[in-house]
Amino acid sequence: MTMNKDAGMDGRFGVELADVFAAAKRIGDIAVYTRMRRAYDLSARFKKSVWLKMETMQDTGAFKIRGAANRMLALTDEEKKRGVITVSSGNHGRAVAYVARRLGIRAVICMAEIAPQHKIDGIRVLGGEVIIHGRNQDDADEKARELAEADGLTFISPFDDPLVIAGQGTIALEMLQSHPELDTLIVPLSGGGLMSGIALAAKAIKPGIHIVGVSTKDGAAMFESIKAGRIVSVEETPSLADALPGPIPPDNKYTFDICRNLVDEIVQVSEDEIGAGMAYAHFHERIVLEGAGAVGLSALISDHRIARGENVGVVCSGANIDPKKYADIVSRYGDAVQK
Ligand SMILES: *Cc1c(COP(=O)(O)O)cnc(C)c1O
Question: Which pTM does this prediction carry?
Answer without folding.
Answer: 0.96
